[in-house]
Design brief:
The protein has about 475 residues and is mainly alpha-helical. It has a domain of about 70 residues. The protein is built from 21 helices and eight strands. Helix 16 packs antiparallel against helix 17. The chain starts with 5 loop residues before the first helix and ends in a 9-residue tail after the last helix.
Length: about 475
């Protein structure tokens, strides 16, 4: 597992950052790990690259999911969740801080090892593979940041002094150019097969490029030429022969290992917990859930949809009575909530998908529709719908789509993404890319603390960054 390298990486980075103080010391401490001596061992480079994974995935529910139109009001006891749900986030909230700091931790750690790898005592192939792995993780982090915050600082090396850390905000077009450069390099040099589950490989880069190109083609950049790139990269993954859709939607989840549909997942050590989505989703006594399905969303599913039948539990019977609020089943372990005295806030070891094959089918469907209309796009979306049927041979269940206009098909893809990918950290980005935040206003109306407006295109930058780095704030929700 990757986890055992996390503390090691932190120690190395701390030593590196403290190096500027070394001249002031009479003695060199014997108990502190020196990066140069550590890197005398060729295996050390790989261990440090593996340590970059410590802050993955970047999913922060209050920023990546909760404001979108498929959720009901969160538990009143969930700290800061209700203001976010009511469209009133502030730069003082910890979720804004986490959504900013976690990607930048990945970037800092990636930049650290990228500074050492060019001179590493490794074969050219191994060196390039590790550089590609670090650059993919860095590109993934930049992509998350630019979607949430727009123009962002773009550090490409470890700062040697405080002044180096106070970077201005870089226009998002330049940030995206760097993301494409990082992911394209990764696609060219990563191995075909990952060294172990949880680490990235060539087709992870290809799949992420499809996601990035689709995003760039939509709002706010509107670089529509990239729909063709998105379709090409999605098709490469779909046609690679390396993956296949799991026949029963249920079997994608409640797993600790990859399935045939897994492209990249965050894995946790069985028996030690880790995946927080159980506690964020369960409506059983003792939990303070923030991601609860709304009645509107529950009623939106097609007839005979497994994603509703298994994926959303209503009026669920527990030893302590019937739950009055429904819950998403994707990451909830009912063996825990069915106990007479369930543990409060328990976390489970289920893997958390970062990108899986179903998303690539939906990327291909959306891109093909934008380029040529729905004619050839049905083949992609209808495979996802067929898989969703409870009874595969009953065509009245989640029926194949046909006869739609281009605009109707686009809306159908958005719905399909919500039914298929809810709770996987993609909902807010989908609303931004398709510029459909107005749906929240239509559904919640006067219950919102702040009406939907142009400020919904970005999240507030944490106040600490505004103060310490002297960068301008995004438009606040007023």
């Amino acid at each position: 597992m990757i986890h055992k390298y996390i503390i090691l990486l932190s120690a190395i980075v701390l030593v590196f950052l403290a190096a500027s103080c070394e001249k002031a010391l009479e003695e060199k401490p014997k108990t502190i790990l020196d990066p140069d001596s550590f890197f005398e061992n060729p295996e050390g480079y790989e261990r440090v690259v593996m340590g970059i994974y410590s802050d993955i995935p970047l999913f922060v529910p209050q920023t990546h999911e909760m404001i979108i139109d498929i959720y009901a009001s969160p538990s009143a006891a969930a700290e800061q969740a209700l203001p976010v749900y009511n469209n009133g986030p502030t730069p003082f909230f910890y979720n804004a801080r986490d959504a900013w700091n976690r990607p930048y931790a990945i970037i800092k750690n990636a930049n650290f090892i990228l500074g050492y790898l060019p001179d590493a005592p490794l074969s050219d192939q191994k060196k390039n593979e590790l550089i590609a792995e670090a650059r993919l993780l860095r590109g993934y982090a930049f992509f998350d940041l630019v979607q949430l915050f727009g123009d962002i600082p773009l550090p490409l090396k470890v700062g040697e002094n405080y002044g180096d850390l106070r970077l201005p905000r870089t226009p998002q077009s330049e940030v995206y150019a760097q993301i494409l450069e990082d992911l394209s390099f990764a696609e060219g040099y990563l191995p075909e097969v990952a060294a172990q589950q949880g680490r990235v490989y060539k087709l992870v880069a290809t799949a992420l490029l499809a996601r990035v190109y689709l995003t760039m083609a939509g709002n706010p950049l509107h670089l529509t030429q990239y729909y063709q790139n998105a379709l090409q990269k999605a098709s490469e993954v779909i046609n690679s022969g390396k993956f296949s859709l799991v026949e029963d939607y249920v079997d994608i989840f409640h797993q600790v290992d990859y399935t045939s549909e897994s492209i990249w997942e965050k894995q946790y050590v069985p028996g030690r917990g880790g995946n927080p989505m159980h506690g964020l989703s369960s409506t059983a006594p003792g939990y303070n859930p923030v991601l609860i399905p709304s009645a509107h969303f529950i009623n939106s599913f097609p007839q005979g949809d497994r994603r509703k039948q298994w994926g959303i539990r209503e009026l669920y019977q527990t030893p302590n009575g019937i739950l009055q609020r429904p819950f998403f089943h994707k990451f909830v372990d009912t063996a825990i909530t069915d106990r007479a005295t369930p543990p409060s806030g328990a976390i489970v070891s289920y893997s958390l998908p970062i990108i899986r094959l179903a998303e690539l089918y939906l990327i291909a469907a959306e891109a093909e529709n934008e380029i040529n209309g729905p004619g050839q796009a049905y083949q992609y979306i209808n495979q996802i719908r067929w898989r969703a049927r409870i009874h595969k041979n009953d065509s009245s269940q989640v029926p194949d789509l046909s006869g739609l206009s281009q605009a109707q098909f686009k809306e159908a893809v958005i719905n399909e993404r919500n039914w298929e990918l809810h709770q996987e950290g993609l909902g807010w980005q989908t609303m931004k890319r398709t510029n459909t935040f107005s749906k929240i206003q239509e559904l919640r109306g006067s219950s919102l603390s702040v009406p939907i407006g142009p400020y919904n295109q970005t999240w507030p930058i944490p106040v600490e960054e505004i103060i310490n780095n002297d960068i301008p704030q995004n438009p606040l929700y007023q």
